[in-house]
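During the no-cost extension, the postdoctoral fellow (Dr. R.K.) reprocessed legacy sequence entries with the updated structure-token encoder. One reprocessed record is reproduced below for audit purposes.
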Amino acid sequence: MTDLGLKGRAALVTGASRNIGRAIALALAEAGASIAIIARSDKDAAEAVAREVEAFGVKAKVLIGDVASEADAARLVSEAASALGRLDILVNNAAIRREAPVEELSYKDWRDVISVTLDGAFLMSRAAIPHLRAGGSGAIINIGGLTAYTGAVNRVHVVSAKAGLDGMTKALAQELSPDGITVNLVSPGMIETNREHTKAGDPTHHKTTRTLVGRRGTPEEVAAAVAYLASMQARFTTGQTLHINGGAFLP
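Re-encoded structure tokens follow.
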């Protein structure tokens, strides 16, 4: 990998125990950053990722907690910064992606998705800002989604949460620029991931959406975009959305 200027820096990645989150953690580790791997409950999977991270010769710290909890978010950031000695990069990847027709969608299901995806990104960002500011060149990268821009059936809660991340990214980019903190969003679409843990098949919109390149993307292709936005080479990039979807959506 090209030198991205991440050696000696530290990153916290939420939802890092599998799929895109795991790939992001490994890409940042390969570029030289130490990684705090955040998972909600699957400690075994998170520790497996930690071993992969450490194989790159950098430090890994596994932390278990709920990003939607104000107390947990503050604890996770504090413990990550303490364990790694600093915090330069925050990747808000944790999300819930359930499907249900709107008339069958309970308020609890709505809140579950919004709280993890949108509230969690807010709580983690707010807690991380003092640490990111201290380094003078911090970066927040939010992980959005294709359907925030196209819509999707049976996903009003997911679409709303991801669309909210887009707005939050733009607002934070403006507010945090004086502190030397960039804020950007990576929006994956049509990515091949393992969904066994969700007990659900492919999202409904995958059956009708096609890419221009004739295949689905990989978590590693999303992770490469995140690594660039976290790098010292991207200090002139803030408030932007980077679409990684093989041409399935052309903004």
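The longest helix spans residues 107-135. The chain has one domain: 10-242. The remaining legacy entries will be reprocessed before the final report is submitted.
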